[in-house]
Amino acid sequence: MSADQTTSGGFHHAQDKLTFLLSLVPYLIQQTQVSVHDAARHFGVSEETIREAVLLIAVSGVPGSDSNYQHGDLFDIDWDAFDQNEIIITQLVAIDDSPRFSAREASALIAGLQYLQSLPENVDSAAYSSLAAKLARGASETPSQVIVSPAATNESFARVGDALSRGVQLEFDYRDSRGQSERRRVDPLRLDSDNDDWYLRAWCHSRRSVRTFRLDRIDALHVTDLAIDHRPSDVHLSDSLFDTSGEHTTVVLEFRPEALGLLGEFVPEGTRVTRSGDMSRASVRVAHFHGLTRLVAGLAGVARVVDPPEARQAARRWALDALASYPDATSSETTSSETTIANA
């Protein structure tokens, strides 16, 4: 045995033995009771190594305020059970005082994991289920049961997810913000969501750059057998869903200053915002009008599109279409609403 090896367990460095002990303690606590044989098999060491480690744990602890060790300052085990090759820790030290997630915090994290697991690239990933189970066990109290219901998707969602998993190209007709349709061939890179809407981030072969496509505006989708030419690691994929670094339209928005946070990514941090009376204005670049017009139509009296005219018309059309979906509205309500929309 070389000079840097420990005298037990075959560990080549003291650091290796310390790492082993730090892993062994939470394992024994989690198991409640485990045989020496099973613990040795779990860590891939000899039973003698496990026994020596448990003996070391039993004389470890945290000294009291007077720097002396009392009985309550040390770990303890069930010695009768240990004689029968069973390990049961009967007293814990310091570990019980470590901070834990509250039940609410654990529930929020588990909900986030469930959402991530619902994404096409993560479906059936055992790692998320395992981590959620560990969070539940490690919380200070039992977390509330949560179920994240996936947003409704159209048939394109599953087919795009299939192309992503197989690494093949897609072809489809795409309608832009002006209603014009064009055939596109793309290398799918990622699916992203914004509330209940899903978007495909992809390398567009006709534009030779990354583009964002809203799934419900994709028609005649065809999953090809052609391998993709560009992968997410090969291109710059902006963290912003509405990346307007390529083709874009400049839109002037007017909104109440306190509503700036409601506009989200449409007015990203760093955008120049000016004051016009009691309202604020900002010029932003958007790849299409659809999401923007729906946003401002839902913030009537709070935000509106000022320019260009086609963007204002798109917002008006969206609001009128939404109004038409309420057949029970009275004629007076409809007239009042249309007047409000016309002034938006």
Automatic annotation (TrEMBL):
<protein>
    <submittedName>
        <fullName>Proteasome accessory factor C</fullName>
    </submittedName>
</protein>
<feature type="domain" description="WCX">
    <location>
        <begin position="248"/>
        <end position="322"/>
    </location>
</feature>
<dbReference type="InterPro" id="IPR051534">
    <property type="entry name" value="CBASS_pafABC_assoc_protein"/>
</dbReference>
<dbReference type="Pfam" id="PF19187">
    <property type="entry name" value="HTH_PafC"/>
</dbReference>
<dbReference type="InterPro" id="IPR026881">
    <property type="entry name" value="WYL_dom"/>
</dbReference>
<dbReference type="InterPro" id="IPR057727">
    <property type="entry name" value="WCX_dom"/>
</dbReference>
<dbReference type="InterPro" id="IPR028349">
    <property type="entry name" value="PafC-like"/>
</dbReference>
<keyword id="KW-0647">Proteasome</keyword>
<dbReference type="Pfam" id="PF25583">
    <property type="entry name" value="WCX"/>
</dbReference>
<feature type="domain" description="PafC HTH">
    <location>
        <begin position="16"/>
        <end position="136"/>
    </location>
</feature>
<feature type="domain" description="WYL">
    <location>
        <begin position="156"/>
        <end position="223"/>
    </location>
</feature>
<dbReference type="Pfam" id="PF13280">
    <property type="entry name" value="WYL"/>
</dbReference>
<dbReference type="InterPro" id="IPR043839">
    <property type="entry name" value="PafC_HTH"/>
</dbReference>
<dbReference type="GO" id="GO:0000502">
    <property type="term" value="C:proteasome complex"/>
</dbReference>
